[in-house]
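User:
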Amino acid sequence: MSMARRFILAAAVLTLVFATGLSAAAGDLDTSFNGTGKVLTDFAGGSNDLANGVAVQADGKVVVAGGSNNETDSSFAVVRYTVNGALDPAFDGDGKVRTDFTSSSTEWAQSLAIQPDGKIVVIGPVGLPGNGTGADFGLVRYNADGTLDAGFSGDGKVVIDFAHTTDFPESVALQSDGKIVVAGSSRPFGTQAYDFAVARYNQDGSLDGSFDGDGKVITNIFTGSDDFATRVAVQTDGRVVAGGVASIGSAYSAVLVRYMPDGSLDGSFDGDGKVVVTTPTDSINDLALQPDGKIVTAGGASHITRFNADGSVDNTFAAGSSPFPSPFALAIQRDGRIVAAAPTGYPASDFGVTRYGPNGALDLSFGSGGTLTTDLAATDIPAGVALAPDGKIVVAGIGGPAGAGPNDFAVVRYLAAPPQCKVPNVRGKKLAAAKASIRRARCTAGKVTRKPSKRVKKGRVISQSPRAGATVPSGGKVNLVISKGRRR
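Assistant: Predicted structure:
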């Protein structure tokens, strides 16, 4: 082999080593996902596709839901990607599913949740012609293969009307018993203002009569205010937390409401079940529950706020800020760190991602000073954040040209932390082979010392530290003791 070819081969090997994560850091694009960490998906040539929610299955596959709109039709749109970012052919044959409630209805998906059995629940507004309402709550449940689940209301689809006017569902969460909770807003008949609207469904798609008597609850925050629930979550004790915004004129207030399992307002939550943060221009775009019952919210002027289990603001939390506008979505990692996604600005925008420590301070180990930006197209707006079983961070939203669409589904996957190294067993190997094995495992050969040995041949590894099988951070050093052979 010529020296030139040897040099090219060596360079290629080094490139592969670094591409596999030796130099990777928290917040780096995960290049095992579609080769770049990013993917854009068009449902049908020229359609305007808006992704609004994302979830990750137990097997690592990514499911994204939103709407697909062409000149004559708007539909629920769901995409599933394999772990490596390709469209999953096991999902309806091509990885994509469009669902219409009727041939003349208008609908799009706002949120989704994945059941333990792999079935996928998707919710969004549905406009049925001739029913005298602007929109109603719509639910669809898919089997794991993308087909409609006939065990859900007979055809996989449910529509309910709250109050004979416009009802707009925004978020879905699953209870531990399999019941489905949906939150949004409703404009009751005879009024001009919207209220919080929460519904609970049985596993078969019927309304749960044990929730406020008919499965539906409407909650007014202020007299005359427009109240919009944007996110919902279910505590381990069955209480339901809904967050959103109340507006009167140009003033916006962030709102949390907690319901008892029977649908009544929880009086132990700020006295009346409702928490209102009256700072002007504040809002809640997303929320997540900590294991200790505290509630973390994203949105508005406060960016990230944490509330105690009783509804009071947690003053031990450093009210995380960000260089980006109001975050649209968040998720809490297993280690308590908080990931939030926001558009970087308007009209041109990228995905902006910020990570905070458990105390609310920016996590300086993430990206650049706790933040990062990702460009997919001229206009990129994130809408949802989900965490993979291995901790990787998935952000989904839209990517499209400047100005009005058509947009595509946009998905990005990031590393949550540098890849770890599982220390290989190199005892008995020659030094060069031991170093190569250590490097392949994403560790670094550390201090090398030599001493005589009666049992180990000269030039081979007598011992190593850390021991084989130990887990250390990527690039961690493995110290070696090499045999000098028998002492003379």
